[in-house]
Amino acid sequence: MTYTQEPPVQKGFLLKKRKWPLKGWHKRFFYLDKGILKYAKSQTDIEREKLHGCIDVGLSVMSVKKSSKCIDLDTEEHIYHLKVKSDEVFDEWVSKLRHHRMYRQNEIAMFPRDVSHFFAGSTVTDSAPGMFDSISNLAHCHTYLLEMSQLLQSMDVLHRTYSAPAINAIQVGLPALPFTFCLLLPLLCPTFD
Question: Could you tell me which residue ranges the PH domain spans (predicted)?
């Protein structure tokens, strides 16, 4: 299974644990597409974008409790507790969530600027105030970290590219190198003897 291929849509009713105001397990319709898990009271509400919530599974930590048929998705802001009644449906959802999660993580790595695109047009009714600000900040931080990582990789390539001629020049026997450069060369080029 390759995680670059777009996974098929997964949808159906699951139980979602709620703490407040109506504590307990509530039946919700879930719709998983391209690593984004949306949920509402019914399929019609999903189609009308009348959502109760939206979770980017690529940015979530997923834990599975097979004995109780529970799936927990930790988004740092909230922990979503989901439950399934049958083993077959549980295994199917776990498999699909893992596939969508890997697909979404790959998508985020390839296109870091599009991390928060899935929130456009969504109406979320039971989310905490300021959630979108935090997610937006997280997306920006993630983008900056990816850019920094790419910059460090580029610097490493440049370091190897520019240090190689210096090593060749020393091996040929050019004595005109400044003393400071000769002291720094082993630090700049760990392979230099």
Answer: 7-102
